[in-house]
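Researcher: I'm preparing a figure for a lab meeting and need a structural model of a single chain. I don't have an experimental structure, so a prediction will have to do for now. The sequence is pasted below. Please return the structure as C-alpha cells so I can convert it later.
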Amino acid sequence: MKMLKIKRVPFFLIEKIFFSILCAVIPVRKNLILFGSGFNKFSDNPKFLFLHFQKSHLYTSVWISTNKAEVLQMRKQGYNCLYKWSFKAFFTVIKASKWIVSHKGADIFPFVPKRTIIINLWHGTPIKKIGFDSLKELEWIDNVLKTGRKLPYDRWDYFITASENTNFIFKSAMRLNDEKLKALGQPRNQFIYDTIATSNNINDLKGQMPFLELLNDRQLILYTPTFRNNIDSTNYIKDSLIKIDALLEKNQNQILLFKPHPLDKATFDAEFFGKLHNVLNVSTEDTQELLCISDVLITDYSSILFDFMITQRPIIAHVFDHEEYVKESGGLYFSFDKMGITIAHNKDELIGCLSNIDSLTNTYNSNGFNTPNSSEKILSFIASLD
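Model: Understood. Here is the structure written out cell by cell.
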C-alpha cells in the first residue's frame, strides 16, 4: 500500500493567509501612517518627513524599526516607534492607511495589505543607471518575472521625485507612469534648505556635534564615496585618504570628514583610521547634517552630489574609475562634464584641487535637481488623498 505524500505548506504562506484574513476583518484607520527606511535605521527621506509630521495634528505617525535600541531611544524623545517584529507593530501594520518608505514595502513589513497606499520617497536621484536601465539589475528583474512574481515597483501607488527634471529616470528605470510620479522634492533636502538659511542655524548644528570641538574652525571637507563592491577601487580610496592626510598635515586649516557607504563601513575600520591624523571617520553621523556644515564635498557617483548643490559650495567629483564604473553599471544618467562641477580623474588631480580650494569654480544649477518646501508639499498631497 502506497503512503500518501502530503506536501508541506510553507510557513510564510500560512502567515500570508492569516494576514489577509485579519486585513479583511480589522478596519483601516485613515489618519494612521507608518514610516520606515530601507537602511534599517531612523534615516533618509522618511526620517525627515516623519519629523515634519510631528508638527501636524492631521495624522498619527508611527516609525517602524528593526532596532530595539533605536525604538527605546525614539520613545524617550517622545516619538511613536514600534519594533518591527512585535505583535503591536503587526496589528498596527494592518490598520494603517498609508506606508511611507525609502526603498520598498518591506521597509515596514514583508506583507502589504491590498488597501494600503504605499508612497515611496526613494533615497536620492541616481547617477548610475538602475532598474530596467541597468545591465546588472535586468538579470534580477528577469528572474523575478520568470517565477511569476511581481516587481516591487508594481506595488507602489506613488513615487516622489526630487524635481520634474528627474522624472525621466524613474519612467524608464521602473516603468512608472505620470500618475504615480510626483515631483514634490526630497524631505531630507528640506532640512538643508532650512539649516543653511542662516549662519546661526549652522552654528547651532555644529554645537551639537562633539567631534568638532577640537577642530578650531578648520575648513571641513566631506568625502562620501559610493559603494563599489570592488577591492581595487576600495584600496584606491584608502590610498587617496593617506595622501590627503599627508597634505592636511602640512595645511592645518583643513580637516577631512570621511563617511563611507553603509556597505563599506567594515572595510574602513578603526585600525585604518588610527593611522590618520587629519581624517575623521564620521560613518555614524547623519549625512544631511554633515552636508550642512561642510565647506567642500568630494564624492563620485552618489546622489549626495545633488543634495549638496543646495549649499552652492564647491563639489569635486573624484571619478578615478569612470570608464570601468560606466561599463560595469551600464551607463550614467548624467554627464559629469555637463554638471558644472570640478572633476578629479586621479589622486594627483584631487590633491591639486584640495591645495587650491579657493580657486575651484562651480557653475551648477541646483534648482534643476531639487524642489524646496518638499515636506509641506508631500503632506498636502497626502491630505488630498483622503
